[in-house]
Write a structure and sequence with these properties.
By secondary structure, the protein is mainly α. The protein is 75% helix and 0% strand. The protein is globular and about 50 Å long.
Length: 287
Amino acid sequence: MVKIVKHTLELVKFSHTLFAMPFALTAMFYAKRQVPPWPLFLKIFACLILARTAAMAFNRLVDAPLDAKNPRTVNRHLPAGILSKPYVIGLVVVSSLLFIVTTYFINPLSFWLSPLALLIVLGYSLTKRFTHYTQLFLGLSLSIAPIAAWIAVTGKIETPPLLLGIAVLFWVAGFDIIYSTQDYEFDRQHSLKSLVVLMGPKRALLLSRLFHLIFWVILGLFAYFMDLYWLGWVGSLFVGVILMAEHSLLKLDQPKKITAAFFTANGILSVVYFVMVSLDLFLHVPS
């Protein structure tokens, strides 16, 4: 049982929840500029975990035949036979149903939008078959997190979470371009589509920089719109510094540096931003 739990957490890359979670928590705190009641907090947290589990399990399911052919992914759980296909199908179904049920106990708008949210986060995994803009679809799927968290607290769709969602879209699309450079040759050989395949790795990395610049600018707009104090602005500045460090690490011929840029830099970025804007809110330190 312990091994199954361990392998399941590895399958869905549970540690990568760190990427979008801080932005969702930021939206949740700023929706009413306070920590929501604990029951609501736990329901929102559960929805984030369940939606991501369903999305990642579905991704591993539909990509299993490709993963079995790719030297970089051949040891993943499905192609390696560590977890069975029926188990992963069950994981997708159960996570999806629990997600919808949990939204029912949050508010009506969250519940009625939950199937659309699932359609987007699950649908991303199919996009590489028919569009080169797959990185933007991945960004869209993660951009839902802050918007959904805001809706869960307020029951409304408003401008601030849309800004934060658009920022996350460009942030995620930018770092997924970086990650996808590792599979450029494999994707070309198997007729898979992405911005990296469309543009080539070097030009795609320039687009990644542009996406991250847009992300940083929109974070500034969010800070302005929410009237953040100096700690929040310092958090946004740190994001810019981390992004520059991330892109300075990149060496297309050194996969370990791509991994460092993808995992380390973006994990640090999201946590630093969340900590700074949270301190800005709760300490309310004027400039």
